[in-house]
């Protein structure tokens, strides 16, 4: 028994998502919701390489140190 899975394009998914948000929230709250997301900054791939060489204890100590700053 096999089932077929529909694969939508990313543009179709975005349109469906926007339509669902607009329906559920209305246009003003939809815009506010979308504006609440931040793309962030930095280079995750580059920064990740630095984390891979650290132990969990080292990472925890760095977090504690940065919180004190």
Structure summary:
By secondary structure, the chain is mainly alpha-helical.
What does this molecule look like?
With 69 residues, the protein is mostly helical. It has one domain. It contains 3 helices and no strands. The longest helix has 26 residues, at 10-35.
Which properties best describe this structure?
mainly alpha; about 70 residues
Can you count the helices?
A: 3
> What Rg do the Cα atoms give?
21 Å
Mean pLDDT equals 89
Low-confidence stretches: none
Helix/strand order, N-terminal first? HHH
Q: Determine the structural class based on helices, strands and strand pairing.
A: mainly alpha
Proportion of beta-strand residues:
under 5%
Work out the number of β strands.
0
Compute the separation of the termini in Å: 59 Å
Tally of distinct domains: 1
> What is the overall silhouette?
flat
Question: Mind describing the biggest β-sheet?
Answer: none
Helix content: 55-70%
Describe the secondary structure blueprint for this structure.
Elements: H1 10-35, H2 44-52, H3 56-68
């Amino acid at each position: 028994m096999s089932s077929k899975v529909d694969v939508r394009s990313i543009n179709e998914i975005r349109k469906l998502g926007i339509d669902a948000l607009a329906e559920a929230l209305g246009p003003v709250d939809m815009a506010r919701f979308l504006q609440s997301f931040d793309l962030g900054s930095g280079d995750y791939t580059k920064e990740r390489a630095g984390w891979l060489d650290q132990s969990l204890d080292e990472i925890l100590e760095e977090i504690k140190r940065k919180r004190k700053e």
